[in-house]
Amino acid sequence: MNPSAIIKAAEWTLSVEAADGAPSGIFQVQCIACAEMSPAVDDDRLAVELWAMKHTGANTAHRQFKLATESFWRVDPAPSNPLCEGGRRAL
């Protein structure tokens, strides 16, 4: 493989993915007592919280849950990076 350019040092920025359609988060909980899992939902932590409360209401000894969350990030060239074109990332 012949690289077209070698960049020895360049600055990059890390940020939350804000592209259209990208969720701010995906949430799901699992009951520690019985391993039942809530549905995984995009952008709606409240739905998962309500699921846990209802699960405990139906199973009063089930009071501990493990929360799993996913978020999406992206890395783009910083303004000083040669790959940055006019403040926008180069494709």
Describe the structure.
The protein has 91 residues and is of the alpha+beta class. It folds into 2 domains: 1-22 and 73-91, no CATH class; 23-71. The chain is 15% helix and 31% strand. The protein has one helix spanning 45-58; strands at 12-16, 26-31, 41-42, 65-70, 73-77, 84-85, 88-89. The strands form 3 sheets. It has a 3-stranded antiparallel β-sheet with strand order 3-2-4, with helices on one face. A two-stranded antiparallel sheet has the order 1-5. A hairpin with a 2-residue loop joins β6 (84-85) and β7. The chain is elongated. The mean pLDDT is 88.
Count of strand segments: 7
Estimate the global geometry from the Cα principal axes. Answer: elongated
Structural class: alpha+beta
What is the topology, as strand order, of the major beta sheet?
3-2-4
Mean pLDDT: 88
Largest β-sheet summary: 3 strands, antiparallel
Q: State the separation between the terminal residues, measured CA to CA.
A: 19 Å
Q: In percent terms, what proportion of residues is strand?
A: 25-35%
| Fraction in helix | 10-25%
Counted up, domains total 2
Any idea what the radius of gyration is? 21 Å
Low-confidence stretches: none
Q: H/E series, N to C? A: EEEHEEEE
The tally of helices reads 1
In short:
It contains 1 helix and 7 strands. It is 15% helix and 31% strand.
Compile the SSE list and pairings.
Elements: E1 12-16, E2 26-31, E3 41-42, H1 45-58, E4 65-70, E5 73-77, E6 84-85, E7 88-89
Antiparallel strand pairs: 1-5, 2-3, 2-4, 6-7
